[in-house]
Structures are given as structure tokens and as C-alpha cells.
């Protein structure tokens, strides 16, 4: 369902911190999943077929100290609508929750999979997000580095393992094959879960999961190289206008009352104090537009349509304003500083400890150069949490270097799906690694599109992508049933 232009703009604006910022380098590592284009749901908003459950989850899976025996209530959701039942060994599709409310994840492609294969739907909320809060409340959980120290991808994967085992046992469904499905960070978790817990799930569909955006595997400016490509392919003149606008912003800002001029021109909610604030905001908007340049809205096209469609004689900044107006048709003010006012959150903790993606801007993009600076990144993490990032931990824990050889030797049954207009696809797996660890991608799609709910208006190339994924999953399930009957 298409969002009206104002709703699209609002969704992009409210969650703008998911993408990149030169002033806040950690913000570059936010992935976002489907949250950007969905409205948050409370438990009461869910249709009646979705059952809310809570599991008494272990706080620390990896220690035997006294405090390790503490527990918290982890939320998960079950939907039996399509399930063929335990007696038929019908599959269980497990949505590996990412950085947000699990109730926002229910309307995804996982429903179509359940309908196709008579599957049970199981959605598991990630610890420290939504209602799955250790220590009883967010204030207590986020109190300091000691209470936040139990938030990691490794702990989250162990949570998923325990919940799946618990659900299967309760339903006498031990013979029902489970398949992990996730998007963005959740897609990374789905693929890592299959690698770490192959006895729990028989396969994984990992949508838009940049598991190779760590260490030096992917060029640090890869994200913005793809953003630039998206805009340049859409309109060369639009690309050139954006590229020229940065120096023009600085030129106007240097004039007497220049910041006031810019504040009025861009209709900012608060007066600008530096030109960098405006440039950061515009960078957010362009990157968001590229990351979610999906049908039917195509925000890159909308932005460039506004820029290129400005009246003849409009200057560079006037054209940029016209581009923003194409996303914000309501005429409301531009909340330039909203992302700066938010306090550090759970995802900031994760990017300060292990999800360290060295992302910067180089000279081959439409943005001003802003190389990744590990010293600045570390300083921000120390200031916020008192911790030093573990730059190399993800590749140590889950791999990444020489991925084709490594996963080809010991991994199986993973689909890495991407849309190449998604800037994060640059850090994704885009080539088949083996017969069963495969890459499925489209030239046109952007972030997490294949994992969204199918609609009758979906373009043929998206339908074909999902059909390919279904065919692969069908083969996994058939192979499992063959082995089960042979026992």
C-alpha cells in the first residue's frame, strides 16, 4: 500500500538516525529493517490469531556466576492460522526479531511462507527491545555498562534457541522443522543462527543482511557509493545539483546572517547554529531515500523529480528545497536536530560493543568526504557508555573474511537476499557460495523489500525473487522430510 507523500516523509524523518551522519559516526551502522515504513503496533492492535506469550529467559547464557541465574520475561508471538499441526511435522517459521518491537514484525513475507507450507508462525523479540527488558524496566536495563553488558548478538541467538526448543516441546512438535527468517540486522541474526545452531533450524532466509560490512572486507564508503549510484542513474542533473549544494550551503552560511537565511529557506523548526547541521540532515534524507527506494513510492525518483522540476532559473539551494518538498508536501517545518536530541539507546550500545561497521564517505560519492575515524568513534562510545568498541569481534565470532571458502566448507541452507538499490547490499553476499548457500537479488529492489508483505501490485521481478526463495525453501523442507521418513 503506497504511503501518501507526507506519511512517507514523516516515516523517513522520525527514524532518520537509522542511516548515516558525519557528526555521529555510529549512526552509520543502524540498519533499521522494516521499521522505517511501518507504523508501530501495540499488542492490542494485533489480529486475534496472534497470541502473545512470555518466556522466562536466562539473563546470561555463558556464565555460572550467581548473577547469571537471573531471568527476564522475553516476549514472543505465535500464530497457528496456517499450521498443519505437529502430527504432520509441518514447519515452523521463526522470525528473528531485530532492534525494535516484535509486534512490528508480524506483517511480513513470513505469512506467505506459512500459508504456502502450512507453517506455524513464531516471532521472537530481541532482548533489550520492546517489552523484553531485563531488570524489569528500560531505565534499569540501561542504567550502566554492567546492566547493558548482557545485550549482544550472541546472547540474542541463545535466546532464540531456547525459545524455539521451548515452543517445540510444549507443542510436541520436536519433528517439525524450523526455518529462521530475518531482515536487516535480523537477517544477519538469521544467517548467524543457522551457522551457530544448525541443529535448531534447518535453514535461514536472510534479507538485506550486510554481514560483510565489518573490518576491511567492504570499502568504508561502499554505502554512499551505492547511494550516489542510485541518484546518478535516476538523474544526472539531480546528482550534480546535490553534489554542488554542499559548498553552496557553506557559502551562504558564511554571509552576514547566513545561517538565518538558510533556516528560513529550508523552513527549519529550530534556528541553525552551523551549516553542518543542515548538511547532516540532507545527507540523512538522501541516504534514507536510497535505502528505501522501493515501489510504489520510489523516494529517490520523488526527490529528483522535485529537484529537476523546480522552475527555470531556480538556484541550487532552491532546487534542493524543491526536492525536500516532494517528500514533505504538508509544508511542516524540517526538524533538523531531532536525531541529535535522542539519548543513547540499545542499538547505540550494540554498535559501541560489537556491531562496528567502519562506514565513511570518500571522494567517489556525491557527498563531502568524511572518512571513518576509529578514534572519534571510540571517543563517542567511551563518552556514552564507558566502553571501547571491539572492531574485529564480529568476524572473529561469525566469520566474514574469505567467506566463500569458509561457508562453502561448513555452512548450508542459507538464502542471502538483496536489492541492489539498497546501499547496504554492498556489504551483503551477492554470489552463490555453494549449492545451498545462495544469493538471490534484484537490480531494482532496495532494503528488505522481498521480506515485506506480498501485494497484488508487486512488480514481476519482485514476484520472481520471492518465488525463487520459496522454491529453495521447499527443497529444504522436502529434504528434511525425506531424512525424517528414512529414520
From TrEMBL:
The keyword Isomerase does not apply. Pfam families: Peptidase_S28 (PF05577). Gene3D superfamilies: alpha/beta hydrolase (3.40.50.1820), Serine carboxypeptidase S28, SKS domain (1.20.120.980). Residues 1-22 form the signal peptide. Keywords: Glycoprotein, Hydrolase, Protease, Signal. InterPro entries: AB_hydrolase_fold, Peptidase_S28, Ser_carbopepase_S28_SKS. SUPFAM superfamilies: alpha/beta-Hydrolases (SSF53474). Transmembrane segments: none annotated. The keyword Lipid biosynthesis does not apply. Belongs to the peptidase S28 family. This is Lysosomal Pro-X carboxypeptidase. It comes from Hevea brasiliensis (Para rubber tree). The lineage of its organism: Eukaryota, Viridiplantae, Streptophyta, Embryophyta, Tracheophyta.
Amino acid at each position: 500500500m503506497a504511503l501518501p507523500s507526507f506519511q512517507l516523509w514523516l516515516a523517513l524523518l522520525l527514524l532518520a538516525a537509522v542511516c548515516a551522519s558525519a557528526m555521529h559516526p555510529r549512526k552509520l551502522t543502524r540498519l533499521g529493517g522494516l521499521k522505517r515504513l511501518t507504523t508501530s503496533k501495540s499488542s492490542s492492535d494485533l489480529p486475534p490469531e496472534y497470541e502473545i506469550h512470555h518466556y522466562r529467559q536466562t539473563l546470561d547464557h555463558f556464565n555460572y556466576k550467581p548473577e547469571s541465574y537471573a531471568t527476564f520475561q522475553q516476549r514472543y508471538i505465535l500464530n497457528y492460522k496456517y499450521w498443519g499441526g505437529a502430527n504432520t511435522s509441518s514447519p515452523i517459521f521463526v522470525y528473528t526479531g531485530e532492534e525494535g518491537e516484535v509486534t512490528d514484525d508480524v506483517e511480513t513475507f513470513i505469512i506467505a511462507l506459512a500459508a504456502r507450507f502450512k507453517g506455524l508462525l513464531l516471532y521472537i523479540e530481541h532482548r533489550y527491545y520492546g517489552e523484553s527488558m531485563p531488570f524489569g524496566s528500560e531505565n534499569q536495563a540501561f542504567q550502566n555498562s554492567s546492566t547493558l553488558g548482557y545485550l549482544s548478538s550472541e546472547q540474542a541467538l541463545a535466546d532464540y534457541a531456547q525459545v524455539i526448543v521451548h515452543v517445540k516441546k510444549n507443542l510436541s512438535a520436536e519433528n517439525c522443522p524450523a526455518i529462521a527468517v530475518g531482515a536487516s540486522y535480523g537477517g544477519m541474526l538469521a544467517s548467524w543462527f543457522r551457522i551457530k545452531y544448525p541443529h535448531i533450524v534447518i535453514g535461514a532466509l536472510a534479507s538485506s543482511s550486510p554481514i560483510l560490512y565489518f573490518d576491511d572486507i567492504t570499502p568504508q564508503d561502499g554505502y554512499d557509493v551505492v547511494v550516489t549510484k542510485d541518484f546518478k542513474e535516476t538523474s544526472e542533473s539531480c546528482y550534480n545539483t546535490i553534489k554542488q549544494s554542499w559548498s553552496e550551503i557553506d557559502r551562504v552560511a558564511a554571509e552576514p546572517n547566513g545561517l538565518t537565511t538558510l533556516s528560513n529557506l529550508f523552513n527549519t523548526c529550530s534556528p541553525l547554529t552551523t551549516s553542518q547541521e543542515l548538511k547532516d540532515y540532507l545527507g540523512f534524507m538522501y541516504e534514507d531515500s536510497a535505502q528505501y527506494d522501493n515501489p510504489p513510492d520510489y523516494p529517490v525518483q520523488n526527490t529528483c523529480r522535485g529537484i529537476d522540476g523546480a522552475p527555470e532559473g531556480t538556484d541550487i539551494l532552491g532546487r534542493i528545497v524543491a526536492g525536500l518538498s516532494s517528500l514533505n508536501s504538508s509544508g511542516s517545518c524540517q526538524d533538523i536536530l531531532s536525531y541529535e536530541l535522542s539519548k543513547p539507546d540499545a542499538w547505540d550500545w550494540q554498535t559501541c560493543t560489537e556491531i562496528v561497521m567502519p562506514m565513511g564517505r570518500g571522494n567517489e560519492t556525491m557527498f563531502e568526504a568524511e572518512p571513518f575515524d576509529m578514534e572519534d568513534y571510540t571517543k563517542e562510545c567511551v563518552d556514552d557508555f564507558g566502553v571501547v568498541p571491539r572492531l574485529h569481534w564480529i568476524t572473529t565470532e561469525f566469520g566474514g573474511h574469505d567467506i566463500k571458502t569458509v561457508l562453502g566448507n561448513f555452512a548450508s541452507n542459507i538464502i542471502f537476499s538483496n536489492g541492489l538499490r539498497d546501499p547496504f547490499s554492498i556489504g551483503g553476499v551477492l554470489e552463490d557460495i555453494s549449492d545451498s548457500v545462495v544469493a538471490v537479488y534484484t537490480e531494482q529492489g532496495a532494503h528488505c523489500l522481498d521480506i515485506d508483505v506480498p501485494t497484488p501490485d508487486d512488480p514481476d521481478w519482485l514476484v520472481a525473487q520471492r518465488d525463487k526463495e520459496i522454491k529453495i525453501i521447499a527443497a529444504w523442507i522436502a529434504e528434511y522430510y525425506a531424512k525424517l521418513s528414512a529414520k
